[in-house]
Amino acid sequence: MVGEILGLGQAKARGGSAPRKERTMKQMILDYIRNEYIDDDDDDVVLDENTKLISGGIVDSFSMVSLKRFIEKKYAISIPDEEASPEAFDTVNSIIALVNRHVAKKG
Amino acid sequence: MAYPTTVKDTWRADLDKIRGDGLYKEERFIHSPQAADIMVEFPAGAAPKEVINLCSNNYLGLSSHPEVVAAAHRGLDERGYGMSSVRFICGTQDVHRTLERKLTEFLGTEDTILFPSCMDANAGVFEAILGPQDIMISDRLVHASIIDGIRLAKAGTNAIHDTYKHSDMKHLEQKLQEHADKRVKVIITDGVFSMDGDLAPMDEIVRLAEQYGALVFLDDSHASGFIGKTGRGTHEAKGVFGKIDIITTTLGKGLGGASGGCVSGRKEIVELCRQKARPYLFSNAVPPPIAYAAITVLDLLSSSTVRRDKLEVNAKFWRHGLIEAGFVVKEGDSPIVPVMLFNAKLSQDVSRDLFAEGIYAVGFFFPVVPAGQARIRTQMSADHDRPMLERALAAFKKVGAKHGILGLDKKGIIGKYGQ
Ligand SMILES: Cc1ncc(COP(=O)(O)O)c(C=O)c1O
Fold this sequence. Notes:
By secondary structure, chain A is mainly α.
């Protein structure tokens, strides 16, 4: 896990095109959201990294907690409540930015 | 006395935003007792108009029932108007305890504690019993008062919280497995969901609770008195009467319609609430007339099922009539029958046109219900008679035809009006 995280940081630092590990993170979070928040019979929902999750009504802010817990566990970070705002969790892209910030902070 | 203009302007802007978003709520003044048909002044200043009421929680028609009113009068005469105290100082009369005992028997539990409202019961119970080793696992569509109770418990006790997809037992089981290491696991659900009218699968919830060593919490506010063969609630309807650890319910809907609520359940839970639940400790006792009237309501309902039977017949007739007319109606088996319109503005327009036809039914839209799920929620009462319901159906058909939605399915309505 740590290697994966470091790899991510290095890829970013090199400024290369869409790093592989980031795609993995994106895919993992998207998969989690699909399983956790979207009903099996709801085929209307289009979900990608820019989809508005909370303001779009896909994830309610009260149920966001399981997504936060999933990310914290997966990337071995701890996101303080004041940073886990509905804005920070509104798209997969903003979640990735938040995770990367915390991973980088951890060193 | 400092009320700075800057603060005032901020709040004015908040209000303007609510108005601008179309979310501003206006009260309509009713010039008659609560009933199946009422006199409503709307808009403010207009002459009161007689309308059929399809949006009250007066499920059993007891809000203005002569025996209930007479009992409240008796309470007023024999025990006075109010207690001027919280329960534990000098606010408990014999009748409060009698009512608690009767609720215990009616709901099939071990003991009961009254609260000023069910909102208070839900706000107080979790914090009173849980600790940092515990988890609350709630259905995603539980009532706002439960959400507040969970928030208070998280803040006050560090208990943790998770949610499961609405009535999705596979997802609930996954959550029970994920949190297997917790000391107390409470599964939290409404019995009848107030915006959709569907029943929680209490039988499956109880089975999972037994399998994973969890407690079951049931808010039966929209079920107590009429759901189940003898009206005991969702647990009766689903064959698990006597197996629920915590039931909260209100005296403000089917059970008389005034106010008051309770936590009913395991002895120790009720006892802990008496020691620790903040809305119980710090808010006034239920007034004597309400205690008297609620006792009478429970006696009436325990001796006869006529009212809940009539309600069931009304709900079937109404649901069937709407479907036959070509409306999209949420599936369910309760007196709550939501007519789906999906588009928020359409729900407001239909509500307004229904009012012009003498029908009082309100449109609900985001954020009260999920975005794109706007609806008119209709609620049956045992006090509606067949001619009233026929008139109401005729009005719905007329308004539905005006908007061209009869016979359209979800895709058709969204295609026409957008989501
Ligand atoms: C499911 C549910 N629980 C609790 C309440 C609150 O009940 P009370 O009016 O007694 O506070 C309501 C009423 O709106 C409700 O619908």
